[in-house]
Design a protein that fits this description.
It is a single-pass type II membrane protein. The protein has about 160 residues and is mainly alpha-helical. The protein has 9 helices and 2 strands; from the N terminus they run αβαααβααααα.
Length: about 160
Amino acid sequence: HRRLHTKETRLSKFNQTEIKAMLGSYTKVLFVRDPFHRLIATFLQGMGITPSFSSFIQEVLDSGMHNSSVAWKPLVSLCRPCLIQYDYVVMFGFLRQELGHLLGRAGLPTGSLLPELTDSQVQWTYRWLSEQMFSELSAQQKKQLSRFYRWDLAAFPFSSSFLSD
């Protein structure tokens, strides 16, 4: 888009005509990840100040939708997939396959540009971590998390998510 880029200007700062022109001139790629995996990663990176995963989840639930951190806010509220027509949606856990396809579509060589991604190992690790962490949560917390992320679960194919049970 011809408009000069300014540091960290939010799309909401532009008028509808400018937004439409900008979105129409870019290839839009959305990277998505199972919301429960995002919570686990956030907790493991030390963003939760509590000692247990269960108490961290309670903090998340107590923060509510409007006061929640970007680290765990539902993707639908961050990326607006119902309003923005993304050209590609790339699922975490299938990065090597999907990035290869995306680079090929862009006319770029796929072999030399892709980092070594071990998606199957990542999926297995997160499956194991999910089982461990999910077992720490109360039935009420599980239900509340499923409700908190209901729109993400409806918008994206997280069929194996613990939250979609």
